[in-house]
Write a structure and sequence with these properties.
Layout lengths: L1 E6 L4 H13 L3 E4 L10 H13 L5 E6 L3 H7 L7 E3 L3 H9 L5 E5 L5 H13 L6 H14 L4
Helix pairs in contact: 1-5, 2-3, 4-5
The protein binds D-ribose.
D-ribose binds next to helix 3.
Length: about 150
């Protein structure tokens, strides 16, 4: 399992702790930046992570900004990406089980680091969407987008 991770300046303080958590879980990590709290633009990192997942260079992606929302808006522009911004462990589980979210977006200004680490764990521990009920809905999205890449 390989995960691509990226953040902007707001999310940067959470990035290394999340990388450490992923490595503890035996996951290989590709860090696409940013590398400091100097102001930068979240779409840059959202597109890098989303492209890595869409081209199968990574299995999944994690993005961190102030709220997770800007990252999810940008990442969802990339074909084949289902990016979900979550603010609870319940949502982190649900977006994997129901929506097969392949990119998890979290916010450093909306949740504590401990909460965000629990979201990452919940998302990874959840079983990706199985069964026709969820598969059909995910297919509807993919068909609208123009088919799975
Ligand atoms: C940066 O100030 C902030 O706008 C960004 O991190 C993010 O929250 C956008 O959605």
């Amino acid at each position: 399992m390989k995960i691509a991770i990226g953040s902007d300046h707001a999310g940067f303080p959470y990035k290394d702790p999340i990388v450490a958590r992923l490595k503890e879980r035996g996951i290989a990590v590709v860090d696409v930046g940013t590398t400091s709290t100097a102001s930068t633009d979240y779409p840059l990192y959202a597109f890098r992570v989303a492209d890595a997942v869409a081209t199968r260079q990574a299995d999944l992606g994690v993005l961190i900004c102030g709220t997770g929302v800007g990252m999810s808006i940008a990442a969802n522009k990339v074909h084949g990406i289902r990016a979900a911004a979550v603010q609870s462990a319940f949502a982190a589980t649900a977006v994997r089980e129901h929506n097969d979210a392949n990119v998890l977006c979290v916010g450093s200004r909306t949740n504590s680091l401990a909460e965000v680490l629990s979201f990452v764990d919940a998302w990874l521990d959840a079983t990706p969407a199985t069964g026709e009920r969820h598969a059909k809905r995910i297919r509807m999205i993919s068909d609208y987008e123009g088919g799975t890449k």
